Amino acid sequence: MLQQVPDRTPHSERTDSSCSLVFLASASILIGIATGTICGTFRLFLEWLEFTRTEMAPRFLHGSPWGGFFLVVGVALAALAAVEMVRRLAPLAAGSGIPHVEAVLSGITGPASWPLIPVKFVGGLLAIESGLALGREGPSVQMGAAVADAIARRLSLGRADCRALLAAGAGAGLATAFNAPAAGAVFVLEELVGQFEARMVCAALGASISAIMFSRGILGSQPDFIASYPVLPTAVAKQLFFVMTGLMTGLLAVGYNRTILAALRLADRLPVSIYTRATLIGGLAGLVVWLDPHLAGGGDWITQAAISNTINWHLIPLLFVFRLVFGAVSYAAATPGGLFAPMLALGALSGLACSFVAQILSPDTALATAPFVIVGMASMFAGSVRSPVTGIILVMEMTGSSDLVLPLLCGSFSAMVVAGACGDTPIYEALRLRAAVGRR
């Protein structure tokens, strides 16, 4: 049983109307500005380091006979340093961070202390850009929540308003991570708190909007991925191909969730310390970077390649299995890092495979590849996280594909149904339950 812990929010005796809506909105804007600045800078550093890994590392490897050795050792030490920081300074910074935020909002545990922010920032940079298959959204969401908690406490707000602002800060972190303001706000309402209450909506919108306004000053306003495709056929029969994509991807999402949890259970049973484990996994990531730096990291390169249809069809199964296993092993390192970006890359590969199947089944109809890839991304999110509206809006904002609403709905609905029929637990709920018994 999950035990309720004493509420750590100041002035918790106040009522839900502890401050006016205008004051709450102003506080959410302040939180959004702080979160957008911190998480925007975090993402900017990630982009710089990714360029170094993908463009500069190959030159270093070709220029030195010892280059590969130093690369593997360097990545292993980076993973070790990330875990050392987490264990010594902020244990709650391990892993994604989203399950912890959900636990705080549910009253199961208390919010993290301020050292989490620099630990998540630096540890996330070390882990993600050393090559581990981890995403940027987990650190951004948890840092946003920590920023919001610190500001709300300074303002001496009541429990309900502190909770609303903490959730809003988390949503602002997601919005900044993917340049997706609407998805950040909906993530708060659908996944984190599960309610559409006026004050919560106000706080979520205020934080996400202001975060994006400031982060775009750092990062620019272009969508994360470039997607172009002709107008889709409107026939009902053609929409069934997207239902097929959702069904297939939903099954793969169940496999993804179970692989993540199996990797964590296996890591618990290994007769080595967490430091040795992180070093070994870091060394594995170094080998991947050595072989092909584009296959390491969060997976954005793979997602864009799938959207652009530049991956040979016979490589899709091999690449999917590799990224599935590598992502699960990377998460077991217990470094800061999220699941969204690797998850979306797997969904993109699933959608790409389904596009080839559709072409075989309907050779007389010109079916573009990109819509299948985009639907696969949203379907993987819906099947794994079980927050379909967030997934649909997130993918639309990341790809600029607002005209794919019906295919996205078909795919996400199908993925939700098949994942539920398999009796699978949503990934963040499963991780939260795991953390409740003392594991990460």
From TrEMBL:
Domain of life the protein comes from = Bacteria
Q: A single GO molecular function, which one? A: voltage-gated chloride channel activity
Q: Where are the transmembrane segments?
A: 21-46, 66-83, 164-186, 198-219, 231-254, 274-291, 311-333, 339-358, 365-384, 404-423
Protein's membrane topology: Multi-pass membrane protein
- Asked whether the keyword Protein biosynthesis is assigned, the reply is no
Cellular location(s): Membrane
Q: Which InterPro entries does this UniProt record tie to the protein?
A: Cl-channel_core (IPR014743), ClC (IPR001807)
Record-linked PANTHER family: CHLORIDE CHANNEL PROTEIN
Protein name, as recorded: H(+)/Cl(-) exchange transporter ClcA
